[in-house]
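The instructor's notes for this session suggest beginning with a concrete chain rather than abstract definitions. Hand out the sequence below and ask the class to guess, before any prediction is shown, which regions might be ordered.
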Amino acid sequence: MPVSPSAFDLAYDELLARWPESTEERDVATPYGRTRVHVYGPVDGSPLVLLPGGSATGLVWFANAPVLGERYRVHAVDLMGDAGRTERHGTPLRDAGDLTAWLGALLDGLGLARTHLCGHSYGAWQAVRYALHAPQRIDRLALVDPTQVFAGFRPGYLLRALPTLIRPSEARARAFLAWETAGLHPDETWQRLHALATTVPGRKLIGGGRLPAADLGMPVLVLLAERSRAHRAAEVAGKARRALARGEVALLPGATHHSLPLTEPKELNDRLMEFLG
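After discussion, reveal the predicted structure:
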């Protein structure tokens, strides 16, 4: 007897329908399991890999892919260990080193010897870890309100997140999103998907502590949410400017941490397109 789709699956399919019709759904084999990648853009376009924040799924880039995909071959990833249609099996996912190895295996499976890499939040943290590990594979690195890279979390943010972490539920996740994105009203379908993602059985986000504020030896764009409650944007901006020899740092006016990258995407898209060249 067929299994009825979960509320998460229904929300996932609803948001997937917002992607361009020619989007390809690829399942890429890695030692850690099959990874779902949403691929859009010209086959001969320069590759651009997008890593989402925690619970966001690769679908969060739905407002960015149509623009970025005019020039680049976009690969938006459902993160290993997080909710989505990436499946964890095979080699155990134990620590941050495994996440780095998984991302390298994913790039191999996609046939990408070099790529532009862009990450948001937790995805930006993973992107920086990989860029430190294998800089020869990254052309340009874009970080959208990166967490645990140039500065730590605000204590108040962690305190607000605690109920969702300890006893995850759609209602608690919704309340947390409403607090962090106050006044912006992110897309309803994405909010539902994000909230339901926190309740998916077997979800295992891998942490690894704050990364040092060091130069990455490549062109880096840091886009920060002016109203981010995850950290103090001005502090992150200052540390990023001091650390990055080839860095560009900018604040996105009015944006909050979780409202990116889908709320008011035009400035984010424009800045990414200009940076990637």
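Then share the key points. The first helix runs from residue 7 to 16. The first strand starts at residue 24 and ends at 30.
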